[in-house]
Amino acid sequence: MGLVTLQKRLIIIMNLLWTCNKFIDNSKKHPHNFPNSCNRRYQTGKLKKKASGSRAEMLSYLVLDLICHFYYHFYSKMKVKSIACMILGWILPGLGHIVLKKYWRGLIFFLCITAMFALGLILEGRIYSFQTENPLTILGFFSDLGIGLYYFLSKTLALGIGNLKSSTFEFGTAYIAGAGLLNYLVALDAFDIALEKKT
Fold this sequence. Notes:
Layout: H1 3-29, H2 33-44, H3 55-76, H4 80-91, H5 95-99, H6 103-122, H7 135-145, H8 149-156, H9 169-194
Helix pairs in contact: 1-3, 2-3, 4-9, 6-9, 7-9
């Protein structure tokens, strides 16, 4: 690597650091303008470069757009409300949708998943605890955990012990696991609605 090439690369790095530092300082001084500027920059989707711009300027704009891209997707969009709705939807089926004022959808999810879980208990299915002896029981545990509050209530009230001698044992266990997996999807649906990815 020649001395001239090394000098050019050092200049590019210094320009990048200076541009990023200036951008961060401006965001601290004007925090309310930072999201809007990032959203505008991201939504335009094009880098504004001059035809005579240097490589350092082009890379500086690229770094700024990458920062805005990251902010737009993982900070601006990942709001507390979205995560809270997902957690609430996991704790109680349909609760995340009810918080988002999707009352009928939340009620339908609540009734269907609750009925499916209750049917699994009636059929003497088993709710698995975390065990390392058998890898398949670990999968069963994470499936059952998806039912949220019902899982912990069942463990507290000693429900879902399961009866291996019952002819409906496997059906009941499958219903319970299916209810948990469906509730995962419902919670993620509430998360997407809160992010306005869907209605």
